[in-house]
Design goal:
By secondary structure, the chain is mainly β. The protein has no helices and 11 strands.
Length: 123
């Protein structure tokens, strides 16, 4: 089970750090990803990290502002979000997949999902 947390209300230009903690299952063998979904929109890829932590991928819209990382000892994945913009507002979901590389951008290939955490950015 994945538990996402850390969302909230922040002003544009501010920062948030999302966490995705796993219980009952080790994440060490999975690539992990963050996706987001706004009202009336499809789930959108944000960032992914390989099982080893050695490779990361980002959507163009967040590259340079967001950083994904993982702490295997804590069985947790993080998404540090800086310089937030109103268009970043959405429900953010973490997921686990056995597919790496470019496939980690495809939400349909994810096996496990967290419940989502709301990020609201005021202008």
């Amino acid at each position: 089970q994945l538990q996402a947390s850390g969302g909230g209300l922040v002003q544009a230009g501010g920062s948030l750090r999302l966490s995705c903690a796993a219980s009952g299952r080790a994440l060490s063998s999975y690539d992990m990803g963050w996706f987001r979904q706004g009202p009336g929109k499809e789930r959108e890829f944000v960032a992914a990290i390989s099982w080893s932590g050695g490779s990361t991928r980002y959507a163009d819209s967040v590259n340079g502002r967001f950083t994904i990382s993982r702490d295997s000892a804590k069985n947790t994945v993080y998404l540090q979000m800086n310089t937030l913009k109103p268009e970043d507002a959405a429900v953010y979901y973490c997921g686990a997949t056995v597919y790496g590389g470019t496939s980690s951008r495809d939400h349909q290939l994810y096996r496990y999902w967290g419940q989502g955490t709301q990020v609201t950015v005021s202008s």
